[in-house]
Structure formats: structure tokens, C-alpha cells
């Protein structure tokens, strides 16, 4: 009996796995199809909304659409490697989708239909060769070899992404190719039926997985981050972006730093010297005159032959020795109309281990009253007001202090009471 019950459980588990796998294929294996026609057809053949269409039904749907039409329509199938409903509905911050030119084509077409879930529509159109249609394959990047007349099925394979291309750029490049090829086909045939679909859903992983290797730009002259370290390894500075210098009211573009040196000749002072092109020099003045702590007091900026300007910040940049200072927000050093701005930076001088190239534990610049603390104080204050008001209302309730005695005199309440 135990063996029979175990075998029944195994059989039911296998059936459940098959059902789940079938449902997954039904949901994720189908792809959307966008169809448009250059000429209006008298035949009306529609499917229920949100209906999953099999490959055979879609093939019959296309045959009914082209049967008896004069001239015989040219069917252009634009095939993506993968496509999903989100590719049609996505929009950027300006309200532009992936297919702006295709949207214009479909809005001006004689007929447009959208089928959200079709099983293997590309293969279904290929089977039209059994009904007298001749198939022709074309790459989207090679528009040569387009058919000269009607009565054919043209499969246009849209090219894969290039090395430096993401999906929005890929689909917008395909959008331009679709509009270009469609306009050429219209010049050769008056009745063109266009399809845009994919070989598989974007939600299904492909059977063949390829790895794309991307190289950095060798011609780049600037980096997205800033890193200063003197040759002696006595100080280290890092920022996620380049500093912004406004000298005497005018912004000065800074390239990469060319020379970084350090001066720790004095016992309690370190100077980090940074030179930029054009002729700009910065000096970070560190000291540890307070026992156990270091400070960044000022930054001296010299541009060209002008005298150096000492810049200060209202933020106190201080940390214990062998620890770094980190600020995730912008920090501005200012003196009159000259400002030097750093974003998300970390700095540490006076390394106990000479030549160290990594930061110690960081002291974060966080204000005591953070937004979370202010929110907690506000909510607590609001709840306190509500509680006080409720207690006042409860304490103001007056209960009866006299009751009727059936054996005694009836209580009478006068108007003054």
C-alpha cells in the first residue's frame, strides 16, 4: 500500500509539472503581432479581445484577408528576435515610444489591428508558401533584393544589437528600417500588408546565450571620477565626479589632473598639491594639531598667474587618525565669487601605514536632524495633539449624579439646571 501511494504521488507530481509547463508556454511563449494595410479590405475577420491565437488560426486569418484581393497583396513580415507587449507600450520621459515612425504609418494606414498573443506568427506566415505564395528573405541592413511586384511573402529579419547599443536604441533603429523598407514596397505594390512580430517573447530566455564584450573608448580624455594620491602615499582623495571650479564668477573646465604631489615636511601638516590643465593648481591643507584627529581646513586655488585664493566650507571636515571622512552630498568651498564643488567624496590623510592605497573606516557627514528624524518628530507631535484632544473630550463628559428612587420623591429638574 505504501508503494502504491508513493507511486500515485509521483504520478500526480509529474502531471502537475506538465500542466505548469504547458501554462508557462501558453502565457510566455506567445508574442504580440501588429498588422497594418495600405488598402482597405472588405473582409472583416476579427478575434475576441485578449484571445490567444494558435498558429493555424493565425494562418487562416491571413489567408482570408488576402484571398480574392486584386491586386494580390504583398505581405511584409518584420521579424524581431524577441518582442513583448511592453515594447509597444513603453514611453520615455518625453512621451516617445520605441516605434515613433511606425506609429505614424499605422495611424495613416487603411486598416490597423493588434493581436496581443499569437503562437509562432513568423512560422505561420512561412507556411503560406503551400498556398501559392513565394517566400523571400531579406536582411534589414541589406535592402537590395526587395520584390518588384505583389503576391509574395517578404520576411525581413531585423538585425541584432550592436556592441554599444541598448534595447531602446536597437528598437528605434529598427523603427527607421521598417519605415524605409515599407515606403520602398509601397512604390512597387499598391496593397501591402505589414506585420511586426517576434520569434519569441522577451520574457523567455533564448536557447542560445551569447556574451557581448564591450571595450572602453580608447580616445577618451577624461574620466568620470576623481582620484588624488601623492607619491609618498600620505594622503588620498576620491570623488565620484570631477570637481567644478567657478573662478571669479566664471566656470573653468578641468580636464584630468596631470601632477599630484604631497608635502609632509612639517610635523602636523600635510599639503596635497594637484595640478590641472589649463594652468590651475589646488592645494589641500590638512593638519592634526588636535590630538588624535585630522582636519581639512582650507583649499588654496591658483589659476594662471593670479595669486592663490583660500577657500573654506561651512562643513567641518574632521575624522580620527587612520579613519577617512565621507560626504554623500555636495560640498562647496567658497571665497567670494570663487567656488570649488565636490560631489560624493572621501578623503584621508596621515596614514599610519605609509604607502597605503585604501581608505580606513569612514566618518559620514550626516546631519543630526535627518529627514527620517524630522518625520518621526512630526508624527509624534501630531499623535500627541490627537491624544490630548481625545483625553480632553473624554474628561469633559458629565455623568448622572442623581438617580430615581421608586420609594422616594420623584426627581424634578428645573429649567435653570
TrEMBL record:
Gene3D superfamilies: 2.40.160.110. One of its GO terms (biological process) is regulation of cellular pH. The keyword Magnesium does not apply. It is a single-pass membrane protein. The chain crosses the membrane at residues 372-392. GO terms for cellular component: proton-transporting V-type ATPase complex. InterPro entries: Ac45_acc_su (IPR008388), VAS1/VOA1_TM (IPR046756), VAS1_LD (IPR046755). It is found in: Membrane. It comes from the Eukaryota. Keywords: Membrane, Transmembrane, Transmembrane helix. One of its GO terms (molecular function) is ATPase activator activity. Residues 256-350 form the V-type proton ATPase subunit S1 luminal domain. The keyword Transmembrane helix applies. Residues 368-405 form the V-type proton ATPase subunit S1/VOA1 transmembrane domain. Its main location: membrane. Belongs to the vacuolar ATPase subunit S1 family. This is Vacuolar ATP synthase subunit S1.
Amino acid at each position: 500500500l505504501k508503494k502504491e501511494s508513493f507511486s500515485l504521488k509521483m504520478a500526480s507530481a509529474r502531471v502537475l509539472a506538465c500542466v505548469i509547463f504547458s501554462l508557462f508556454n501558453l502565457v510566455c511563449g506567445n508574442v504580440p503581432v501588429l498588422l497594418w494595410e495600405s488598402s482597405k479590405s472588405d473582409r472583416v475577420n476579427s478575434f475576441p479581445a485578449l484571445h490567444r491565437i494558435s498558429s493555424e488560426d493565425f494562418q487562416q486569418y491571413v489567408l482570408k484577408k488576402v484571398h480574392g484581393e486584386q491586386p494580390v497583396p504583398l505581405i511584409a513580415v518584420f521579424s524581431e528576435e524577441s518582442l513583448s507587449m511592453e515594447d509597444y507600450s513603453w514611453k520615455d520621459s518625453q512621451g516617445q515610444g520605441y516605434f515613433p515612425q511606425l506609429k505614424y504609418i499605422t495611424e495613416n494606414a487603411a486598416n490597423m489591428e493588434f493581436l496581443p498573443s499569437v503562437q509562432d506568427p513568423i512560422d505561420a506566415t512561412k507556411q503560406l508558401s503551400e498556398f501559392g505564395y513565394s517566400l523571400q528573405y531579406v536582411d534589414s541592413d541589406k535592402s537590395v533584393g526587395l520584390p518588384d511586384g505583389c503576391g509574395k511573402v517578404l520576411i525581413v529579419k531585423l538585425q541584432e544589437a550592436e556592441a554599444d547599443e541598448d534595447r531602446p536604441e536597437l528598437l528605434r533603429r529598427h523603427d527607421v528600417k521598417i519605415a524605409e523598407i515599407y515606403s520602398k514596397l509601397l512604390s512597387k505594390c499598391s496593397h501591402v500588408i505589414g506585420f511586426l512580430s517576434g520569434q519569441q517573447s522577451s520574457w523567455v530566455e533564448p536557447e542560445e546565450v551569447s556574451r557581448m564584450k564591450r571595450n572602453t573608448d580608447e580616445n577618451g580624455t577624461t574620466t568620470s571620477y576623481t582620484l588624488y594620491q601623492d607619491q609618498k602615499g600620505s594622503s588620498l582623495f576620491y570623488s565620484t565626479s570631477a570637481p567644478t571650479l567657478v573662478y571669479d564668477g566664471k566656470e573653468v573646465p578641468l580636464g584630468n589632473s596631470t601632477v599630484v604631489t604631497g608635502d609632509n615636511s612639517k610635523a602636523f601638516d600635510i599639503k596635497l598639491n594637484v595640478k590641472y590643465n589649463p594652468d590651475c593648481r589646488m592645494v589641500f591643507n590638512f593638519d592634526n594639531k588636535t590630538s588624535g584627529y585630522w582636519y581639512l581646513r582650507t583649499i588654496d586655488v591658483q589659476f594662471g598667474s593670479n595669486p592663490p585664493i583660500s577657500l573654506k566650507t561651512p562643513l567641518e571636515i574632521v575624522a580620527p587618525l587612520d579613519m577617512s571622512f565621507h560626504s554623500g552630498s555636495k560640498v562647496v568651498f567658497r571665497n567670494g565669487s570663487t567656488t570649488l564643488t565636490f560631489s560624493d567624496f572621501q578623503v584621508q590623510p596621515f596614514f599610519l601605514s605609509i604607502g597605503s592605497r585604501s581608505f580606513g573606516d569612514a566618518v559620514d557627514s550626516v546631519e543630526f536632524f535627518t529627514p527620517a528624524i524630522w518625520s518621526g518628530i512630526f508624527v509624534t507631535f501630531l499623535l500627541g495633539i490627537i491624544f490630548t484632544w481625545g483625553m480632553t473630550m473624554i474628561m469633559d463628559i458629565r455623568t448622572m449624579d442623581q438617580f430615581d428612587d421608586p420609594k422616594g420623591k420623584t426627581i424634578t429638574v428645573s429649567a435653570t439646571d
